[in-house]
Description:
By secondary structure, this protein is an all-alpha fold. The chain has helices at 3-29, 33-41, 47-72, 81-96, 103-110, 117-147, 153-188, 191-201, 205-232, 242-253, 259-274, 281-305.
Amino acid sequence: xxxxxxxxxxxxxxxxxxxxxxxxxxxxxxxxxxxxxxxxxxxxxxxxxxxxxxxxxxxxxxxxxxxxxxxxxxxxxxxxxxxxxxxxxxxxxxxxxxxxxxxxxxxxxxxxxxxxxxxxxxxxxxxxxxxxxxxxxxxxxxxxxxxxxxxxxxxxxxxxxxxxxxxxxxxxxxxxxxxxxxxxxxxxxxxxxxxxxxxxxxxxxxxxxxxxxxxxxxxxxxxxxxxxxxxxxxxxxxxxxxxxxxxxxxxxxxxxxxxxxxxxxxxxxxxxxxxxxxxxxxxxxxxxxxxxxxxxxxxxxxxxxxxxxxxxx
Length: 313
C-alpha cells in the first residue's frame, strides 16, 4: 500500500472516531430529553407516522444531495450512485468535525482519482455557493412574506442584519469575479490554472439547471421536515409559518461556525424566531435537535461504520 493510501485510510478512521465522539458528547449534553419526551407524549396522534415520514425525508435529503454531486462530477468521470452516496456521506462526516464544514468538499474531492481532485473541489464549492444563494434568496422572500402581516421590531432588526451580511457576501463574490476577469489573461498562460477554471465552465447550462433543480428540491425537503415537527408540537400553526423556517435556514447560512458550537447557535436562532409564535422552548430546542440528528448525526454515523476506502490513484 502506498504512503498516500495509508494516510487517506487513517484520515478516514480518525474522522470516524471524531464523529462518533462528537455525536456521543452532543447526545449527553442535551438536557431536555425528559421534557421533550413529555412533549411528544402529549401529541401522540400520528407520532409514529410523523417519525417515519421524518426518516423518509432525511433519506430523500441525502439522495438529492448525492444526485446533485453526481451532476457536478459530470464530465470529469462516471461513477455509480452508490459510490457517489458514499462520497456524500464521508463529506458530511468530515464537515461535522471541521470549522464551517470545510472538510466536506475536501473529502469528496479526496475520494476521487488523483488529477481530478482540484477540479472536483472547485465544482463542489460551486454547488455549495449555489445552495447558499438559494437559502439567502429564500430569506428575503420570507421577509417580504412576513412584511404583509407587519413585522415585529425584533424581526425587522433581524431582517436588516440579514440584508447587511448578504450584501457583504455578494460584494465579496463580485470582487472575486472582477479579480478573476482582471487576471484571466495571465491565468491563460498557466495551463494548470486554465484547466481548473475551464472545469467550471464545462459544467454547461443543462447540467447547471439540473443542479439548480436538485438544490431547490433539497431546500424544500429539509424546510418541510422542520415545519412538520414544529407543527406537530404546536409551535407553528399555519403554512404561512414556513416563512420563519426559511428565515431560520437563511440565518444559519450567514453564520459559519465550529461544529462544537453549531448546535447551540441553531438552538439560539430557533428560540428567537420560533419564539415569536410559541413560548414552548423545550419543543423548539427538541425539534432542532431531532432534525440535527436525522440530517447530520445519523448520516455521519452511517459513514463511520462504512469501511475506509483507499483514495484512488
